């Protein structure tokens, strides 16, 4: 303002000084952050005049432009806050003394209107921002980062014009549908990296309109944190790079627009968003310990919001009666029988010998296994089972009764299981003089041998049979009735009405494993680990304190970029993945990790969990082959739905798994370089349509 009162010569000189100081003092604009080469070149071009001597008169014009921008910024952010503050009241009092009463009344009216328009929370801020953004002559979109998958909750009219997608087609989806075969993977990597850290990002990349036409997009993204420091929104501005004369001017305007955007709101989010945001994987990479109380936090948030809505007279959120909804609005399965069976099967096969021993102690268990062998077993396996029972009966007797029972078995000429199952020499004429105690002891050892034979040869097949499924279901009912049983299902002692029932069962099962098992909740932003087992700590060196972090902490400088790309593709498309990649232990040691990813869908067919199983593929560890076999067994039996039933449309992956395991157990001579094996390209289109991307079709040279 003062500049305008100076005469022309002084004014130009002073304006040049002011403008240069202003430019030097500016905060981070475009080009200050992590960027690709293409983005750098573009921004060098936009900045190319900065620092040059300014023409007289131009400086004044620039200062005026900047003043307008600054005013806009104040009007957008600081002024509304000022109006709400106690200071505005003091100013009003000041104005009242000696001013025209009509003018004061008009001003008061205006302030009150502005006050009533103040956003009360972050969601209301969004609504207000949206009404302003609608008229901006640039593409503006907003993603809600507390909603898993970061879908766009708003796009403006300019975005629909530039991309050809309508609001109905774009809102609710992640913006990656604009990507296609020529989208630069390095640009996507920068986006991913900066977004995960909550940093500003400016990236030039190739995108596609709905009609398939390519366009060059200078994408700018501004993360917005709320008053509780929750990573709430990301505002995205898509700037189409048309290499004409006006480009530079438009870039400068874009920079101004971006400077207007806030990165922090002094407003809270609604209770449900607060709860979701509080659970999100932290942008710093440290563990979010709240994840342990996920269900309680989400349901408390929802209840608080409902109460607030009831208090304010707003219509409460619709309650869904059809399906049981757990915290976070996640539909729960009514029937977990399939999962109970699958997890129980994994547990039992983990310790087949002891499980079979306990099962045979239970009458129903014995009958179930016996029925299976009669139907599907060989004569030999049936004889081993008979011997096991007969030996058991003898071993359960005491003193002279035990000797008598042993003698009877040895005397039997017809169908004597001893003939097939032991090497106990039976000389019938000498039976009375036989030293029975060592003979009975020996028989006990042969009984154990028979159990091993049955466990390794028949029990695995039994667990594939309908008899085993029926037995597990019956066992579960007996457990629910409080019966104490020698053999237990995965659900014993767990509350089937708990919203965390599935997770509780997964935890119980995972702790019986020696391989690593982690589970990420795909409904929580940033996909933090909801659980990791002791096996994971043993295989990777990272313990339970890492629950709540995104599992990328395993990656490091030696991790192959193309394998990370494969993992991201698999996560994005909810495809199972089997791969081997270089990971880092906490002390920095590099090792080969066998990783199997299994997606798990909820009853609505949504991608709810991601289970990862890991083995440190150390060729010098004699236990590695055992771990690999365990990995194969576990992954093959993991159900891909919460209910445990395999939907008809689910892709089969057993052959793929077999091929992968065959390639690595054969000494790492897989198809890839240095024995690395990449999975075949998934070939599926990016979720929700769009254009296939190059990352999905990478094959090793
Ligand atoms: C607000 C916002 C706007 C975005 N706009 C675009 C865009 O215009 N074009 C694009 O290719 N990706 C855009 N992205 C990036 C993708 O949505 C996605 O984050 C990126 O592909 C990396 O994640 P991914 O590896 O899961 O695909 C945007 C992301 C956000 C949060």
Automatic annotation (TrEMBL):
GO terms for cellular component: nucleus. This is Putative LOV domain-containing protein. It comes from Scytosiphon dotyi. The keyword S-adenosyl-L-methionine does not apply. Residues 302-324, 664-701 are annotated as: Disordered. Keywords: Chromophore, Flavoprotein, FMN. Residues 199-253 form the PAC domain. It holds the Pfam family PAS_9. Residues 152-198 form the PAS domain. Residues 676-685 have a biased composition (Low complexity).
């Amino acid at each position: 303002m003062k500049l305008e009162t100076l005469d022309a010569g002084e004014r130009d000189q002073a304006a040049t000084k002011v403008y240069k100081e202003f430019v030097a003092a500016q905060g981070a604009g475009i080009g200050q952050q992590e960027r690709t080469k293409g983005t750098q070149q573009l921004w060098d071009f936009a900045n190319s005049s900065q620092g040059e001597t300014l023409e007289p008169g131009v400086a004044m014009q620039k200062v005026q432009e900047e003043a307008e921008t600054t005013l806009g910024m104040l009007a957008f952010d600081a002024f509304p806050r000022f109006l709400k503050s106690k200071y505005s009241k003091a100013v009003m009092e000041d104005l009242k003394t000696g001013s025209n009463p009509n003018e004061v009344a008009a001003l008061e009216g205006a302030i009150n209107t502005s006050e009533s328009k103040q956003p009360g929370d972050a969601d209301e801020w969004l609504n207000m921002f949206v009404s302003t953004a609608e008229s901006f002559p640039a593409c503006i979109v907003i993603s809600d980062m507390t909603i898993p998958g970061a879908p766009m909750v708003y796009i403006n009219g300019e975005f629909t014009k530039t991309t050809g997608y309508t609001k109905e087609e774009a809102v609710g989806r992640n913006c990656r549908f604009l990507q296609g075969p020529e989208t630069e993977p390095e640009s996507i990597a920068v986006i991913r990296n900066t977004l995960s850290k909550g940093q500003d990002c400016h990236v030039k990349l190739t995108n596609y309109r709905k009609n398939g036409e390519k366009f060059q997009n200078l994408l700018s993204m501004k993360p917005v944190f709320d008053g509780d420091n929750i990573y709430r929104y990301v505002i995205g501005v898509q700037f189409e790079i048309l290499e004409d004369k006006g480009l530079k001017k438009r870039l400068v305007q874009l920079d101004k627009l971006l400077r207007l955007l806030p990165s922090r709101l002094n407003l809270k989010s609604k209770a449900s968003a607060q709860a979701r945001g509080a659970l999100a994987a932290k942008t710093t990479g440290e563990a979010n310990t709240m994840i342990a109380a996920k269900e309680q936090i989400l349901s408390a948030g929802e209840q608080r919001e409902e109460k607030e809505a009831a208090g304010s007279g707003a219509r409460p959120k619709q309650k869904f009666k059809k399906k049981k909804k757990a915290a976070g609005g996640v539909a729960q399965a009514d029937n977990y029988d399939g999962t109970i069976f699958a997890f129980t099967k994994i547990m039992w096969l983990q310790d087949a010998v002891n499980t079979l021993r306990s099962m045979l102690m239970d009458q129903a268990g014995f009958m179930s296994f016996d029925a299976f062998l009669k139907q599907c077993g060989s004569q030999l396996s049936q004889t081993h089972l008979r011997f096991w029972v007969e030996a058991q009966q003898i071993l359960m007797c005491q003193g002279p009764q035990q000797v008598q029972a042993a003698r009877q078995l040895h005397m039997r000429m017809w169908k004597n299981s001893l003939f097939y199952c032991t090497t106990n020499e039976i000389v019938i004429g000498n039976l009375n003089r036989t030293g029975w105690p060592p003979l009975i002891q020996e028989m006990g050892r042969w009984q154990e041998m028979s159990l091993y034979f049955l466990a390794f040869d028949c029990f695995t097949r039994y667990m594939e049979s309908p008899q085993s499924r029926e037995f597990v279901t019956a066992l579960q009912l007996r457990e629910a009735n409080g019966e104490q049983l020698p053999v237990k299902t995965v659900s014993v002692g767990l509350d089937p009405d708990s919203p965390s029932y599935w997770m509780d069962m997964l935890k119980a099962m995972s702790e019986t494993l020696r391989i690593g098992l982690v589970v990420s909740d795909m409904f929580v932003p940033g996909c933090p680990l909801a659980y990791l087992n002791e096996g994971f700590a043993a295989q990777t060196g990272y313990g339970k304190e890492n629950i709540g972090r995104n599992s990328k902490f395993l990656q490091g400088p030696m991790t192959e970029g193309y394998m990370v790309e494969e993992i991201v593709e698999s996560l994005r498309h909810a495809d199972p993945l089997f791969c081997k990649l270089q990971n880092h232990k906490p002390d920095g040691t590099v090792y080969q990790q066998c990783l199997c990813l299994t997606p798990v869908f909820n009853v609505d067919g949504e991608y709810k969990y991601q289970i990862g199983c890991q083995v440190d593929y150390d060729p010098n560890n004699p236990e590695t082959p055992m771990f690999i076999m365990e990995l194969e067994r576990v992954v093959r039996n993991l159900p891909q739905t919460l209910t445990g039933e395999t939907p008809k449309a689910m892709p089969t992956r057993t052959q793929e798994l077999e091929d992968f395991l065959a390639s690595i157990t054969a000494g790492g001579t897989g198809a890839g370089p240095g024995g690395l094996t990449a999975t075949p390209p998934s070939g599926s289109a990016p979720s929700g349509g769009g254009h296939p991307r190059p990352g999905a079709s990478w094959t090793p040279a």
